[in-house]
Design a protein that fits this description.
By secondary structure, the protein is α+β, with helices and mostly antiparallel strands. The chain is built from 15 helices and 16 strands. The strands form 3 sheets. An 8-stranded mixed β-sheet has the order 1-5-6-11-10-9-7-8. A 5-stranded mixed β-sheet has the order 13-12-14-15-16, with helices on both faces. Strand 15 and strand 16 form a beta hairpin. The protein is elongated.
Length: 418
């Protein structure tokens, strides 16, 4: 039996990861320039955290969680998303009450979904969460931040922004009942998923991809008819800021998001470049969630970007990224000189932080070692033999430039590399 990776989970190889590293560094640099700080939390949480936070009637809780019982009989789950864990950590350590906080996090999430291009059962997310700001300014800054990320990655023109408002929790409750009242007489016309959601999570029917259901929804009541005045003002002010920033958007009244905790603004950055998996970034406001998870009422908003899809989109668009290269590849004429080579490599790493210094550690013919150095993509080969050891020097051979081979002492070598 050949042991393979689990379906829906994959390995990322060194050459692939160079693009990943570029995108992750860009995400971190841009996000921290807005004043967001990193927060880390565990992969495993009590299952009740997600049931209370994400919503028991969502697809995530009903069908997609990876859960297990520990030795004490407690139900634990691999995190399917980051917001609930972020709030749990912030509450546990007293970071939210009467405070404005901006966090970012990244790492693997887990959902038992049908694997396909751009969708995996273990996937990487980069999330940001903002707490303590009740006004539309929180969502507006999130959009400005996400747009800045896409600009930095050179992919903004391949994305469109869709927005909607769900109003207050009370607005949602009233509209939910109106939608159920409308759809119930047409239950037999709904697709199977929508029939199931009618009893548990009817707003998700608005996002149905089934053509027959979509036609039926054309006559469904509109959400805007159930919004109170303050919710309308919140959304209008949000849109005005986006317009002043020159950020184009489409209002999509069918956009509801798949999680129960959203209120007021919801949004998605979409692309047509990735087929069915077109959502690259999604989020919104969730004013009742902190209280729902045991804290005092605290306004919040956030989003998550799928790094897997960002990488795929970046590659599809032919996005460039800096190659992670080797600066020095050190080879020895004989294994007897390895101790000398180890010392020089250690001193070079100390004198030239940030440079990549590789030592060829196995014995072999000198020409084969030199070919290995060239194949590695290194800028130069550092040659060490009997004469170099005797004179406390090293010989450099440039592999990418037409420069004369030189034998230098340590200080001169460092100068040539600086």
């Amino acid at each position: 039996m050949n042991i393979q990776s689990i379906r829906g989970m994959r390995d990322l190889l060194p050459n692939e990861l160079q693009r990943w590293h570029h995108i992750e560094r860009t995400l971190i640099d841009v996000t921290q320039s807005f004043g967001f700080r990193e927060l880390r939390f565990p992969l495993l949480e009590f299952t009740t955290l997600f049931a209370r936070g994400v919503g028991e009637s969502t697809d995530i809780i009903e069908k997609e969680m990876y859960s297990l019982a520990d030795r004490d009989g407690e139900s634990l789950s691999l995190r399917p998303e980051g917001t609930a864990s972020c709030i749990r950590a912030a509450l546990q350590h007293g970071l939210l009450h009467n405070q404005i906080q901006n966090f970012w996090y990244r790492g693997p999430m887990f959902r038992y979904e049908r694997p396909q291009k751009g969708r995996y059962r273990q996937f990487e997310q980069f999330g940001v969460e903002s707490f303590g700001v009740p006004s539309f300014a929180a969502e507006a800054e999130l959009i400005q931040l996400s747009a800045a990320v896409f600009d930095a990655l050179g992919m903004r023109d391949a994305l469109r922004l869709e927005i909607n408002t769900l109003g207050t929790l009370e607005n949602r409750r009233v509209y939910r009942q109106a939608l159920v009242d409308f759809l119930t007489p047409h239950r037999d016309e709904l697709d199977e998923d929508s029939k199931r959601r009618l009893d548990s999570n009817p707003l998700r029917i608005l996002d149905s991809k089934n053509e027959k259901t979509r036609v039926l929804l054309e006559n469904a009541p509109g959400f805007t008819d159930y919004l109170e005045e303050s919710a309308v003002e919140h959304f209008e002010s949000f849109k005005q800021v986006l317009q002043s920033l020159g950020i184009q958007f489409e209002v999509n009244p069918k956009l509801v998001r798949g999680l129960d905790y959203y209120t007021h603004t919801v949004f998605e950055w979409m692309t047509d470049q990735l087929g069915a998996q077109g959502t690259v970034c999604a989020g919104g406001r969730y004013d009742g969630l902190v209280e729902q998870l045991g804290g005092k009422a605290t306004p919040g908003a956030g989003y998550a970007m799928g790094i897997d899809r960002l990488v795929l989109l970046h590659e599809t668009l032919g996005g460039e990224f800096p190659l992670e290269s080797i600066d020095v590849y050190c080879i020895t004429m004989d294994e007897a000189y390895l101790s000398y080579a180890f010392d020089w490599c250690a001193r070079l790493r100390q004198a030239l932080p940030g440079r990549t210094i590789v030592l060829h550690k196995s014995a072999g013919k000198f020409q084969k070692q030199l070919k290995r150095a060239d194949k590695s993509g290194a800028k130069m080969a550092l040659l060490i033999g009997e004469q170099e050891v005797a004179s406390n020097t090293a010989t450099i051979k440039w592999l990418r430039e037409e420069k004369t081979q030189q034998t230098l002492d340590f200080a001169a070598l460092c100068k040539s590399l600086s």
